[in-house]
Amino acid sequence: MSHPATILPAPGAATDSFVRLRGVNKHFNVDGRRLPILADFNLDVRRHEFIAILGESGCGKSTLLRLLCGLEENYAGQILVDGVAPKVGNDEAGIVFQDPRLFPWLSVAQNIALGLARFRPDRAGVQRRVEELVALVGLSGFENALPHQLSGGMAQRVALARAIVSRPAFLLLDEPFSALDALTRSQMHEQLLRIREAADLTMLLVTHDVEEAVYLADRVVVMAPQPGPLRASVEIGLPYPRVREEAAFQHERERLHALLAKDELIA
Ligand SMILES: Nc1ncnc2c1ncn2[C@@H]1O[C@H](COP(=O)(O)OP(=O)(O)OP(=O)(O)O)[C@@H](O)[C@H]1O
Ligand SMILES: [Mg+2]
């Protein structure tokens, strides 16, 4: 099954949404069985919106991100990112996978520089930009380290640096902070919000952490455990910078926890 190109609008056609999924169906074949992952799935993301995605393990969050950057091409329905069907090599998208996926024989700096390779920048330009990113993710002094010399959290920060080094307009993050300690994680939250402000990013972040979702996102969407529509889409109406200790923050967090505890469809 593949997407019917004929119903896609012309590339660059004006749509209200930066990301638009309409009636998306996605399944895998496992052991001769058809395993449905997304069924009649719809989602719209506004330009510059920051969406956090929550959902039980195995509900299809990573598959959704792979569809959005063109790594999964077998689906039915319509997926548009900035007016066009996503495909690998699209300069606009950066992705951090659930595991860091670094090249083991390349150093931290070389792994990050890979994110710039397709732009063929000059050597000095690469070095400058890589240095900036190394500092941004707190890895100064580890430029020449190899991936096996890093902790899981450090490796994940290299993956984040590689994803944003080319200043993409669209950033997909699959649980990028799950291996970090609480302090580093909250430092990364601040960095991410700064990056977002500076770069006018549209972002989708998969997380299992409700507090992280409320702290970072404009809107939190909850995927259903079974293939189907979203369970919930919740606007977080708090201004930035958000303060975790404030009553309004805790209220939003409790509201989401309560939604997650319910079984029924809320959206
Ligand atoms: N390439 C594949 N081939 C077959 N089945 C797959 C493939 N990729 C994912 N799946 C299946 O699709 C379902 C959704 O997987 P996915 O990785 O998207 O879940 P997830 O929501 O990201 O889960 P988690 O929170 O554990 O990361 C799972 O049942 C998984 O086994
Ligand atoms: Mg996943």
Automatic annotation (TrEMBL):
SUPFAM superfamilies: P-loop containing nucleoside triphosphate hydrolases. CDD domains: ABC_NrtD_SsuB_transporters. InterPro entries: AAA+_ATPase, ABC_transporter-like_ATP-bd, ABC_transporter-like_CS, ABC_transporter_ATP-bind, P-loop_NTPase. It comes from the Bacteria. Its EC number is 3.6.3.-. The keyword Metal-binding does not apply. GO terms for molecular function: ATP binding; ATP hydrolysis activity. Residues 19-250 form the ABC transporter domain. PANTHER family: ALIPHATIC SULFONATES IMPORT ATP-BINDING PROTEIN SSUB (PTHR42788:SF13), TAURINE IMPORT ATP-BINDING PROTEIN-RELATED (PTHR42788). Belongs to the ABC transporter superfamily. This is Aliphatic sulfonates import ATP-binding protein SsuB. It comes from Paraburkholderia caffeinitolerans. The gene is ssuB.
